[in-house]
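forwarding from the other thread:

> can someone predict this with K7E?

sure thing
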Amino acid sequence: MKKSIKTILCLSIGITMFTGCKQNTQAPSNSALASDVASKVYVAPGEYDEFYAFVSGGFSGQMSVYGIPSGRLLKVIPVFSQDAEKGYGYNEETKPMLNTSFGFIPWDDAHHPELSQTAGETDGRWVFINGNNTPRIARIDLTTFETAEIIEIPNSGGNHSSPFTTENTEYVVAGTRFAVPYPQKDMSIKEYKGNFKGALTFIDVEEETGHMEVAFQVLMPGFNYDLAHSGKGKSHGWTFFTTYNTEESNTLMEVGASQNDKDYIAAINWKKAEEYIEQGKFKTIPAQYAHNVYDEKTHIATSEMKKEVRVLDPAECPGLVYFLPTPKSPHGVDVDPTGEYIVGNGKLSADLTVHSFSKVLAAIENNSFDGEAYGIPILKMDEIVAGVVEQAGLGPLHTEFDGKGNAYTTFFISSEVVKWNVGSWEVADRAPTYYSVGHLMIPGGDSKKPEGKYLVALNKITKDRYLPTGPELNHSAQLYDISGDKMELLLDFPTIGEPHYAQGISASKVMNKSKKYYPIDDNAHPHATKSESDVKVVREGNVVRIYMTAIRSHLNPDNIEGIKVGDKVYVHLTNLEQDWDVPHGFSIMGAQNAELLVMPGQTETLYWEPKQEGVYPFYCTDFCSALHQEMQGYIRVSPANANVPLKWSMGDD
Ligand code: K7E
Ligand code: CUA
């Protein structure tokens, strides 16, 4: 067994190098980008793209938004990481968004954007994304393209199998990639086996507001829970999680977690879980997790610490969980648009195993079990398999669907996308990727209604695809036309961070709801200044609050005196503009902080502790008008014991 793993791992290195060396022989494919291909990605100046693509930023912690088919970067949305460009996580209002049970954590590793769905179709309300490192899920509001809420996932380690949604966004899910003591405690790592646990978490999403609450956890054995997808149509009510390391190894995992010929897909009947919760069959377990919500009226985020979580134990809840044996260390699990087929992408398997949901139900009905693991029944594999796509490629990772009866699977090791028919299990086409593709994305490709026109391959290795930029090359996405029988490569474009997964949606489902500014009359920020006549500077002990406004082309007040070394200064800046795309920026020389970038009608706060006496300039950082350069002022900082009176002005006083 060990040998075969080694063979595959060596193969992977071999192929990576091989593709890396193939660059010159591939040069002609560039010239194959004939004008008809170019015209397919050409979006004329002033025209809009047909689709939005929401692309994970991976280790950047953020999410980027691209137009498809042009590949134009439209926006980077700050989510889990501080972002100096927008002041996110630096200004006082958004700092609480990054609060966790470990305190302020200004970074995470984002993996899977997931659009909200209604009746199994993307609906353009929200996009969710998981933080893998300090387990969290964020909800981004697609009227503002801003992070509206972040909830921490308790008693988990590595929230990777997340935040995949159910058919009507009843829940988004989370699963622990790294089994951990449950609840966390000090114990020997060697005692992992049988003692560490894997919590799967269902997070309720409130239909009107999108507000998230942890509904319940299912306490699973200490396997690693890698990816998930919820059922749809006939399998609505179930969620499927892949597992690896069913060996429960805690060291040298590349070998230790690759021993078993089969791991499992865990099938969770969440409707059943709801019944058990209803009947009170849960335990309440102490937990520590933060729930952070951004209020659009006050423009302020608040963070609340939650203390407990409801937990279901599968051994005490018959019918709640079944294991579907699946070869071999499966990564992605993907459900076809009908909800009948569940594709397990076994990383170390040459074949793709597809389970039938109807057969799963029949096997459960007939008690066709192959024993159990920790009290959870294991279904007989040959009774649930619908088909096998044989020898499709090496290292399958993820599958999406085009809505026309085809599936597309990425193969990391053989570096290609393979198109196959759902039902006949025959390979229909294959296209190389440059290089080593991870996830792929078809707009709506994990929903009931895929929009199967384009496919985006999200590649792990870039090498020779762009002008060299030193040792670090941006990751790369590739756009394919999949409207015909054969996949056609149209475009490469670089991404920000690592684009694990992406989701796409017709622009028409989102663009008309886009907010253009915040009405100033609705601004409920406690330190808002809604009119220039209300600007002021207020001292309360050593706390100084500057109530400042910005409008083209002045900051008011622009001369401030009476600040002292050691003061705690809050600049509450309100942008009085009521027009689209007129933010004002704000920064002070020597402030240990980022700038502010304040949207029209919004109030944001820069905190500053002046360290040295002097006269310090401040200015608007966003070129907002012909007289933007004049949008500037001075703050005088006097010694701590000075008697300089507090004064503020703009123009002659
Ligand atoms: Cu990169 Cu979904 Cu985190 Cu696969 S994951 S590639
Ligand atoms: Cu306001 Cu530049």
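The pocket of dinuclear copper ion (ligand 2) is lined by residues 550, 584, 620, 622-624, 628, 631 (CB under 6 Å). thats all i got for now
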